[in-house]
Automatic annotation (TrEMBL):
Gene3D superfamilies: 3.30.450.40, Winged helix-like DNA-binding domain superfamily/Winged helix DNA-binding domain (1.10.10.10). It comes from Prauserella sediminis. The keyword Disulfide bond does not apply. This is DNA-binding IclR family transcriptional regulator. PROSITE patterns: HTH_ICLR, ICLR_ED.
Amino acid sequence: MTAEDHRGNADPGDDAGAEGTVLQTLARGLSVLEAVAERNGSATPKSLARQLGLKQATCYHLLRTLRAEGYVIRLPGGQFDVGPRGLALGKNLSARTAPSPDIAAILARLHNKTGETAYVCGWFHGTILHQQVISGQQSLIVKNLDVGYVGNMHARASCQAILAYLPTSRVTTMFEGTPLTKLTDNTIGTFDDLLEELGTIRRREYALDIEAFAIDVCCVAAPFFDPSGAPAGSFTVSVPVSRFARARGSLVKEVREAGAMATHLLRTGRLSPPGVTPPSEAAAE
């Protein structure tokens, strides 16, 4: 048996020698599928090849394969969009990672009260996952921050609000000695600076992102906790810099209210706005 044969039969769950088992064709096909999904029916082989740095012939071949398997479809004008199997894959993943209906209701309340883009994050397989977003009444597009995003936790208020309440040993394991990418001039770039910021968040009980993840975008985030007191997730509101200064106080109030509601929900199993007694409790009294 050759070394190549051995790699081909390796256990998918075995991390040993993982670099040798990466299939470039599969990786490129998944990149094409992701790019098609991002373009909402406007993807062409030429635009995908340019975006992904692929030869156009390679892109055609990958699209034909994805189309044959039902992951993409070809539209009448020659563009490509996500196909039925791709949609089914996304639906299954969303069902596994989406917040509970009650947490989603709190997110809707936060959005309705602020009128701004609001989202919720939570734990998924050891990382902080962007679970759901409700777009604001005024357009605000943050590139790459889609549902399912798990990157750049050091730069996002939504993640910092959770990290601040983890044991320092766990934060150290996650970040010490790892590169902290500078996305903007305001992004935290060192582990010591991250620890200092997390301490500030614990003292004021909410996190701020002032153009740290994306230029012209500011965020306010507050955590919520499970019955044991461990951080379970966070609520965040994003606004342009132009609206942040005058809205900061009210945004802080609303995200902290959302966090308090979710914490109460997880600890009692009851969902109700602050100061409102659920009918079942009122009847018991």
